[in-house]
Amino acid sequence: MKDGNSTREVDLLRMQLHQLVEDVEPRPDALPRLLAGVRRRRSPRRPLIVLVGAAAVAATAFVVAMFALPGQHAPEPVSVRPDSYLASPEPGVIAAFDVLSGREDREVAHVNGAEPGVLAADNDRIYTMASTVDGRRVVEVNPQGGQRVLPGEAGDGRLLAAGGGRVAYLDGNAVVVVRGENRQAIAIPPGLRVHDLALADDGRLAVLAGEQDSSRAAVLLFAPDANSLAGHVEAVTDAPCGPVAIAWSGPDVAALEPVDCDGGQARVATFAADTGRKIGAGVPFRTPRLTAGEARLSADPLGRFLVSTGKQGQWLVDGSVIRPIPPACSGAGECAPDPGTF
Description:
Elements: H1 4-24, H2 30-41, H3 47-68, E1 84-87, E2 93-98, E3 104-110, E4 114-122, E5 125-132, E6 135-141, E7 147-149, E8 160-163, E9 166-171, E10 174-179, E11 182-187, E12 192-199, E13 205-211, E14 217-222, E15 233-234, E16 245-249, E17 252-258, E18 265-272, E19 278-280, E20 285-286, E21 296-299, E22 305-308, E23 314-318, E24 321-325
Antiparallel strand pairs: 1-2, 2-3, 4-5, 5-6, 6-7, 8-9, 9-10, 10-11, 12-13, 13-14, 14-15, 16-17, 17-18, 18-19, 18-20, 21-22, 22-23, 23-24
Domain FbpC C-terminal regulatory nucleotide binding: 127-177
Protein name: FbpC C-terminal regulatory nucleotide binding domain-containing protein
Transmembrane segments: 48-69
């Protein structure tokens, strides 16, 4: 039989245990009780409460921002969004598509007379070629969908590249680079056929060209102010049939190379722009047989590559991770017959 003192000690112990449990598992009114206690104990130091409240408001705002930002779709340049790319599902229609799902995000613009599959992007600007009453012209589309026809006839409508505020296209046996009112032309020997163009943000130009009767092409690198073949650097590629498409990725030039001439595998190799030396071999992945001029290679700000062949398939190359991605199809079910681009 326990005496009165033992009973009081047991009750005190139980009370203390309950208090500990309340500290570990706060009740719904724990925060108001805690703040009330702080006010009673620290009433002469009210600035502390203000600071605590300000910190709580700031923390709440930070948490709200963290959860709100990923879902926002603010008007940002479509060409720099890491989750979308551009394609033309219908004649004259330029639309943005989600990379992983292939879903159409939005229609960016409708350009009358646009050349099929001729697209390029430079930060917040999109470029295409269109047939007008004054001949073939380069059309610039801004983020809001507004259009501006650039001065000067564009010549050959097969190729178009943009970067660093410049636009490049093929005009007969010359590659023309336009920036504002300045126009420079690099003559290409008649025996060479140009398969692809790429412009870096600093104005450097890459040209994929090969002999007319040969399937092998080379990557020629030019300084921003180049106006001839003199002084160009050639990328040292060991691909048996040569690259089939090129793009700039930061300071380096990338080339889509078939692993063998019979097709079945390709890879995205990277080269130093100043020396042409290969600095990244790329991971091989399965593709149909690729030929120069039929595939497009483009890069996004995250350093990922989009390999697009239109009807033959598309792949997202993210370092060593290769992911086949769906075709670019509109909500009406129309799928882009030509390659897309970041």
